[in-house]
Specification:
The protein is of the alpha/beta class. It is 28% helix and 24% strand. The protein has twelve helices and 16 strands. It has a nine-stranded mixed beta sheet, sandwiched between helices. The longest helix is centred in the first third of the chain and has 14 residues.
């Protein structure tokens, strides 16, 4: 792997991240066009349905792309089953000499076919440059495109002694404003923010993007899990101007028993309903997530309480955990994870690929689920 390839791929990855919040369900893609060691064009996929990164890079070129090297964070597309024409055709017609790729596209419509088309046209192709970094940038896309299930990130704040509230249930605020600003940055990255009914009733959570963060015009789906009969009907996300971005997950039986006036309100305000089966006295979240995936919701930031988080952990329905550890002690307050079945430390949930970020006096610890095959 050449040093210059790493240098220019880092730039392409940085460009790709500029599409956060606007390209879903497409991947984040950046591209850099280099000739004689100088960048002559660059671009990224800016918005779903619009031009891809390679097109923007080639169109921005200050010199002829003939004989140049194109750096792409993802394999150029080669199919017509989408809103824009294949990028591989433009790369070939531009007489680009060499293409360096970070990740192959797992989309079955591409999956190596783009590389093959380029090589058959006489273009030198190099793959796997900064592959692991590219996998992180597009962790949402890679899961969704291969499983049709949304990527699930559990987010919570806890005290140094592992509590998410004090004994009375009060939890405002464990973290400070700098950490809460970080959470709003995270919301921009995800298609949906999910909480349980209890959290909605307790906090009247708005689940939008604030704290001075540019939302790029995005309002994430606000997803609530729980019974319609016990929900706070006056909650903001059931009454604001974005109710078409509100989703309630419940059972069909609960819906049928709900107050008729409330059901009419849901219909009138275009609030979306997702029905899932009841399994072991609770909503089947795996079934619910599959249905959210069918709605092209590719990623979910879970901000629920202990009940929702514990269920996701027990059933291994998560991919990532983002934990804000705050320098406070709460004593006998509740923990975010309730599981009385773990009696030996060897059976504790093990996480992997851990990283840390210091935010003011807090530590944001990020870790990924360890699948059974990795143990």
């Amino acid at each position: 792997m050449l040093t210059k390839d790493i240098q220019f791929m880092k730039r392409a990855l940085a460009l790709a991240k500029k599409g956060i919040g606007t390209v879903s369900p497409n991947p984040l893609v950046g591209a850099v066009l280099v000739k004689d060691g100088i960048i002559i064009g660059e671009g990224y996929h800016e918005k779903y349905g619009e031009a891809h990164a390679e097109v923007n890079a080639i169109n921005s070129a200050t010199d002829s792309p003939e004989g140049a090297t194109l750096y792409c964070t993802l394999e150029p597309c080669c199919h017509t089953n989408k809103q824009t024409p294949p990028c591989s055709n433009l790369v070939i017609s531009s007489k680009i000499k060499r293409v360096v790729i970070c990740n192959l596209d797992p989309n079955p419509y591409v999956a190596g076919k783009g590389v093959k088309q380029l090589e058959e046209a006489g273009i030198e192709v190099v793959t796997g440059v900064l592959k692991s970094k590219g996998l992180k940038v597009n962790e949402v896309f890679f899961k969704y495109i291969t499983t049709s299930m949304p990527f699930i990130n559990i987010k919570y704040a806890q005290t140094l002694d592992g509590k998410i509230a004090v004994n009375s249930g009060d939890s405002k605020w464990i973290s400070d404003e700098s950490a809460r600003t970080k959470v709003h940055e995270m919301r921009l990255k995800y298609d949906a923010v999910l909480i349980g009914r209890n959290t909605l009733n307790k906090d009247n959570a708005k689940l939008n993007i604030r704290m001075g963060i540019d939302n790029k015009g995005k309002v994430p789906y606000r997803v609530i899990i729980g019974s319609l009969r016990n929900i706070n009907q006056d909650a903001d996300i059931l009454n604001d101007e974005f109710t078409d971005k509100t989703v309630i997950i419940t059972s069909i039986e609960d819906y049928q028993k709900a107050d008729n006036d409330f059901v009419k309100k849901i219909t009138d305000k275009k609030i979306k309903m997702v029905f899932a089966s009841i399994r072991e006295d609770r909503i089947d979240l795996e079934e619910a997530f599959k249905k959210l995936g069918e709605m092209k919701i590719t990623s979910i930031l879970v901000e629920g309480g202990a009940k929702v988080i514990s269920t996701l952990l027990k059933e291994e329905l998560y991919d990532k955990i983002s934990c804000f550890i705050c320098p406070k002690l709460a004593g006998n307050g509740p923990s975010y994870y309730e599981n009385s079945e773990i009696n030996e430390m060897s059976n504790a949930v093990k996480l992997q690929d851990v990283s840390y970020e210091v935010i003011n006096d807090q530590v944001l610890m990020t870790a990924y689920r360890t699948s059974k095959k990795d143990l």
